[in-house]
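Students often ask what a holo structure prediction actually looks like on paper. The answer is less mysterious than it sounds. You provide the chain, you provide the ligand, and the output is a string of C-alpha cells encoding the 3D arrangement of the protein together with pyridoxal-5'-phosphate.
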Amino acid sequence: MPERYFTATPPLAPRHGGRLREAARRYGRPPEDFLDLSTGINPLGWPVPPLDEVHLRRLPEDDDGLIEVAAGYYGSAPDHLLALPGSQAGILLLPRLRPPCRVGVLARSYAEHAHAWRMAGHTLIELDTLEAAHALDVLVLVNPNNPDGRCWNRDTLLALHAQQAARGGWLVVDEAFIDAAPRHSLAGETARPGLFVLRSTGKFFGLAGLRTGFLLARPPALARARAALGPWTLAGPSRVLTRAALADHAWQADTRIRLMRDAARLAGLLTRHGLPPQGGTALFQWLRHPEAPALHESLAQGGVLTRLFEARDTEDTPSLRFGLPGREPDWQRLAEVLRPSLA
Ligand SMILES: Cc1ncc(COP(=O)(O)O)c(C=O)c1O
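The corresponding C-alpha cells follow.
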C-alpha cells in the first residue's frame, strides 16, 4: 500500500461540523431554523437535571467520586483514568509525551490526530489501511472510525498493540464513537504498556458542550499527562453532570437500543432516496457520492446541515456525513429536503 509522507509545513487547523452560526450567516437563515446533522452528537442526549449553584462557586475537587464512577462505566481501574476537558485535550497532550518519532494515522479519519502529532514535530505517515502499518513508533486509530464507520475488533487491536509494544511503541485508540456498541473497546485493557485509549462524553451522551473526556493508560503515563495539564482541568459543573450521566445505567441501556434503531432508520431513509450509505455508526451515516458537494449545498439551502468531506485528490470521491435527526419533525424535514435535492 502506498504511504504518503507529510511535509514540514505547518497545516491549517482542521475544520469541523457544528458551525451553526457560520451556516446561518452564509445561508441567511437563523441558527434555530437549521436541522444540524453536521456532527455525530446524539440529538436526544442525556437529560440534564438542574445544577446546584455550589458547583459554580467552589473550585472543583478531584476526589468527588467522578473517577470511580467513570471506572465502573469504562470497565477500568480508577488509577488508569484521567479526566480531561474533552477528549480533544488528550489528542493534543499525547504527542507532547514522546520525543519526535514516526506516527501512523489512517488517511481518512478524524483530522485532529494527524494535526496534533504534526504540530508537535513528529513525522506523520498516512496509511490507507491498517495492513500498511509497520515500523511505526505510534499508531493512532479511531474505532469506530470517523467519518466512514470502519471498525476493528478487539483481537485485531490487541495484536496490533502487542506488535507496537514489542518495539517500545504505542497504540492510541480514540473511542469517541464506541459507547453505543462498546464490545470492541480496549478501555479495560490499559494495564498493557503503550496502550492509550481516549473516550468522550460528547457523542453518545450528547454532552459535547460540557467538554468532558477521559484518557485511559497506565499510571506512570497518566502522571505525566496529569502534570502537563495542571490543576482544575475539568469545570465543576462538568464533573458533577458527567458523574451523574455515567452512573445512569437505565438511560444508557435505553439509548443504545434507540440509537441502533435510529441508525437503521437513517440508513433506510437515505437508501430510499437513492443515497445508500457506505458506512456509519449508531450516531452517523457516511455516503460517498460524486455529487456530494452539490448535495451538501442543496440540503443546506433547504436548512439541513451535513458535513462535507471534499475529495482528497483526483482519484478520491467526496463524501457526506449525516448525523441522526432527533424528534419526529426533524425526520420529516430531512425526508422533505432530500426529495428536491435529488431532482
Ligand atoms: C473521533 C473523534 N475524537 C474526538 C473528538 C473530540 O471530542 P471531544 O473533545 O468533544 O471529547 C471528536 C469530535 O468530533 C471526534 O470526532
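Residues 86-88, 110, 142, 146, 174, 176, 200, 202, 208, 213 surround pyridoxal-5'-phosphate (CB under 6 Å).
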